[in-house]
From TrEMBL, chain A:
It comes from Alloyangia mangrovi. It is a peripheral membrane protein. Keywords: ATP-binding, Nucleotide-binding, Transport. This is ABC transporter ATP-binding protein. The keyword Nucleotide-binding applies.
Amino acid sequence: MMLDTATTRTAPSRTAPIFELIEVEKVFQVRPPGRRFTREKVGLRALDGVRLSVEKGASLALVGESGSGKSTLLRMVAGLDAPSGGRALYHGRPIREVRAEGPGFARDVAMVYQDARGSLDPRMTVGALIAEPLRHFGIVPKAQEETRVGELLERVGLPADAAKRYPSGLSGGQVRRVAIARALASEPSVLVADEAVSGLDVSTQAQLLTLLRKLQQEMGITLVFITHDLGVASYLCEQIAIMYLGRIVETGPTDAVLNAPAHPYAAALRGAAPRFFEPIPEPLPGEIPSPLDLPKGCRFSTRCPMAQDDCRTRDPQLGTLGAGRAVACLHPLAPSDT
Amino acid sequence: MMLQQINAEALLSVSDLTVHRGPAKILDRVSLSLAKGETLALVGESGAGKSTIATALMQLLDGAEIEGTADLQGAGDLLSLRKREMVKLRGQRLSMIFQDAGAALNPAYTVGRQLITTLRRNLGLSRSAARSRAIELFTQVGINDAEARLSAFPHQLSGGMQQRVMVAIALACNPDLLLADEPTSALDVTIQAQIIRLILQLTRERGASCIFVLHDLALASQSCDRIVVLYAGQVVESGPSEEVLKRHRHPYTRQLESCVLEIGRKDLQAPEGTVPSHDQMPAGCRFATRCPRALDRCAREAPPLTPADPARSDARDHLFACWNPE
């Protein structure tokens, strides 16, 4: 579903994917580390050759450690950043171009930010915050605004009187609900969420996850969801893309990938997720390397427990592995290894 | 209370710890005990009082009224010690690791200086002895190139490295009790596994006991001998990890457990409501407003902690507070 975009690329049509990223690169120009007063700039490769497509109604989890490029990829999908190389398409047209044409794109692709509280103006009431997109996109006549705000609050499980309150008077879970209500206000077909449930209590997290799943199933919303929690990914998303140092290293149906990961990094992530009464397995050594100083060969070779000699010289590309899966590894794990 | 009878050899025994902040009762008669070398997890939602217990034990809780006792073997009641005496104990007998290592470390000093100061002040080491001990400690906590890293400032280190520095500082003077307040919730899972394993390994080597504040029950089951489940400032269930999680009696423990998303889980029953705020605390059982098994009695009377199964010796200190247990 998300693979081999090169072979299935067609003219924009109803069946074309909503989003299609083709060999997308993002290079940020930064000062060399430790040299604050220089004019010299070096390229930081945050994304490198990312291929991905998101079909209508799909739910995709982007997973990886901090520094793997998840948020950069999300910003690209939301049209907040332009790719430095490759093409990022929305219904077959460059995202940035569509976005520049008017509010249509922003109405169709709504975003829930990681820092929900920071994304809401503290001086506006919840009601005003949710009414803002309604008015901006002209969703309902002004007379119906209040009713619609009430409906949106109800849909995300907040009491109607929450409309009169300020974000500062709400708990972390409630603030996330407001951010989701605000995103839904423009009646989008795509919801893009960056760690929308992280840092919450498990019970609040469960409430939000059931809400998101309901929205996805009942409204047919397409979901692109960043998370570092594989349990969340497996509950909410049918597809998964595991990222490491700016690349997608494994992708496919979530259950298939997590039941039998082919990439040693996917296997390590799965092993590190807490599981009741299992001894904590030997974790991956070290930390994600700096994107300014990428390892030679496979990027994961410096931490990979199975690295062989050729891994340090040859850079593996994302290749198909059957049944909608793909992996970027020279020596992928066989299902029996995991 | 009964906890103390069972654990005469306890390293730490807390009894009836109550904390008021203004009109709000943040902790309500919390009792727990910890044997030498044992690891204990405090679990519950935010506002349950997990961190309050840890900070109260360290006497780091400002602006609150504290009642009850917390006896640390050989040191007396931690809660009534004078500030000067407490300063001597911190680091030497008990120390704490905080959730946000980046905020806990002083940004203006190198990490080496912060560790060396700890060593010199508490152990009276000379400058050079403290420096070589600091290098040893950094190596023990898995910091590569330890000597060079001594001169790094906190902001130059990753979150995982900062937490390793915190572990090194906390364990520098071999305390017998380590309090770890959500030490890994800001870190990636792979780094979380590294840090938890590191803390467990180092405390085990030193024969130290450890209290973890955690919100992840699965992680608690992997890392702790015993679990104390807190709800709205009260202990609702406590005992050996296996007992509490596999033979839980309190409906809240079940609810917490059912919210843990292990990989592959597709069914999730989200609980209703939220923890009541302090001014709306129910008179009886505090969980009654959200409890699927609540009886009329629950709203009126607060249930006491009772032994789950007095007949079974391995379940002796498994306690729960519920009128209608599972």
